[in-house]
Write a structure and sequence with these properties.
This protein is an alpha+beta fold. The chain is built from 3 helices and 4 strands. The termini are close together.
Length: 96
């Protein structure tokens, strides 16, 4: 089964940190086969108006978990956490 990160984030407060996270995330995403899924605005029923919702799909739950635990991602995540407040949930399933 596929693995997913569901990320709820605030508006970006540090654009430089967000840009650095994006630069670091690209090769990590490629390595783990991660794909960003766009969440339609109408899907956000009970979410704060300034919240961002992001779904990251991985080929498997094991890859989603391994990516999160990867030291390279830990470094990238430090920039993501400076860029905005967020919560991340790890799920297994098929959200097609």
């Amino acid at each position: 089964m596929k693995g997913y990160w569901i990320i709820f984030g605030s508006s970006v407060i540090d654009t430089e940190a967000q840009q650095e996270y994006g630069r670091l995330w690209g090769p990590i995403a490629d390595h783990y086969g991660a794909k960003i899924k766009v969440v339609d605005r109408e899907a956000k029923l009970e979410v704060n108006a300034d919240s961002r919702v992001l779904v990251v799909e991985f080929p498997s739950y094991a890859q989603a978990k391994a990516c999160y635990e990867d030291p390279a991602y830990a470094h990238a995540k430090s920039f993501a956490l400076r860029a905005a407040k967020r919560e991340l949930i790890l799920l297994e399933g098929d959200l097609n």
